Amino acid sequence: MSRLSNLVAVATIVVGTATGGYWAGQHGLSASDFLQMVEAGVEQAFGGEPQQAATAPASSGPIIYYRHPDGDSAYSSMPKRTEDGRDFVAVLASEDVSFDVRSEMKAGGGEAAAPSERKILYYRNPMGLPDTSPVPKKDSMGMDYIPVFEGEADDGSTIRVSAGKLQRTGVKTALATRGAIKRPVRIPGTVTLDERRVSVVSTRTEAFLEEVADVTTGTSIEKGQPLVRFYAKEIAAAGALYAADLKGGSGRNAAAGSLQRLENLGVPAEAIAEIEKTKKVPISVTLMAPRNGVVLERMAIDGMMAEAGQTLFRVADVSTLWVMADVPEYELSSVRIGDKATVRIRSRPGKLFEGNVGLIYPEIQEQTRTARIRIELPNADGLLLTNMYAEVEIATGGTDPVVTVPDSAVIDTGERQVVIVDTGEGSFEPRNVKVGMRGEGMAEIMEGLAEGEKVVVSANFLIDAESNLKAALGALTPAEAKP
To answer: In angstroms, how far is the first alpha carbon of the chain from the final one?
Structure first.
């Protein structure tokens, strides 16, 4: 063929291409198919052997959706017509779009890997709007539509989060474990005397105080230490009768009456032993300290006349003290007798005193709506003083193991309590639970969660908000909007 003939043939093909493009669009041919036809014509025009066109696989499967005949971004899940009356083109399952997620080509090989088991059902709007698409698409801001895989649309509250988004939002998870909940109750208290360890020194009859020991308020004394020496007319008379009975030779049994009178008058055993030994009545009697402790009050004065029962000394044993604390009424059900208590004293920083709840008083203070409890503390080193202010922490809670999660995993809306369960592979499920006791950063889950399940403990409110939004939009979106 001459050069002129070749030029004419090329010009003819170029002109035909423009016309053929329109014809291909009207007959549903793709651009690649049309170019193959043009290439075959060019090769034939220049004397080449025409290439055998690849045999396209036959279309099969049900109708997935309908597309615009001109290839515009317009789709329908049911038969539809354009504004100029043309029918939308039906797209079968094997045509145009594959709903199988295919992996990347194997490195160094030309064969594609087998499709994964998960299928893309449709694509949803990235902003959560009720708009879906059967094919990949961008919204008005250029954001890609998000694929919805098979199984994800079953539950509107379950959402899937990509690994990158999980990292950016700081999502952290923890396992639900089984253990006992300890919830400390912190209340104020005051150090007081053990009322069982307070003694009063007095006479049981009128007496003249002849000599008072050199002890003052606050002095530490020991049991049996002399405190006051006195003379009492009634004691002298009873002593004389007892001495006379002993001298009569009838023995101590015959003097039992006079001996009982001396004991009733509170005469010390040492004074009675002296009468039995000397058969004489002592002029004065000395009272001894009844216990080890501290003198809380001294009323005795040398030479004074003391009435019967008048307090001369008040002595307290401070080796054990009480802490009286007030528990709010709403916390009272958590406190039990025997619970361990830790006491901190402001004037003893860094020092901890440990004891146990000894008594819960059977009444509620009307003004403060609190109940008083008593904690016994040993005070062998004397660091505790009465009326000191104390900060009490009582370790309450059960001993039986229960299902627990970190307190931050629970979202409390006021009407319901929710935890976000990590179901794996980036999927999260909000779940309603029933929360019991809380304490030490942990919460008891009574219903709705099993031991070993993984829950979100950080950024869980973001996932819950997205899940609620998805569920709400899913309820508003008509069924026919989904392909």
So the answer is: 56
| pLDDT < 50: residue spans in the chain | 1-35, 38-39, 41-54, 56, 97-115, 154, 478-482
The token pair that represents 442 in the structure block = 């942990």
| CATH tag, 159-179+400-481 | 2.40.420.20
Q: Which fold, 184-194+318-396?
A: Elongation Factor Tu (Ef-tu); domain 3 (2.40.30)
Q: How far is CA 17 from CA 26, 41, 69, 412, in A?
A: 14, 11, 20, 68
Question: For residues 176 and 194, what is the distance between their CA atoms, to the nearest angstrom?
Answer: 46
Write the DSSP string, 19-38: HHHHHHHHTT--HHHHHHHH
pLDDT tens figures, 102-134: 444 334 444 444 445 667 878 877 776 667 788
| C-alpha–C-alpha distance, residues 56 and 54, integer Å | 6
For the chain, which residues make up each domain, given as ranges?
3-45, 97-153, 159-179+400-481, 184-194+318-396, 204-309
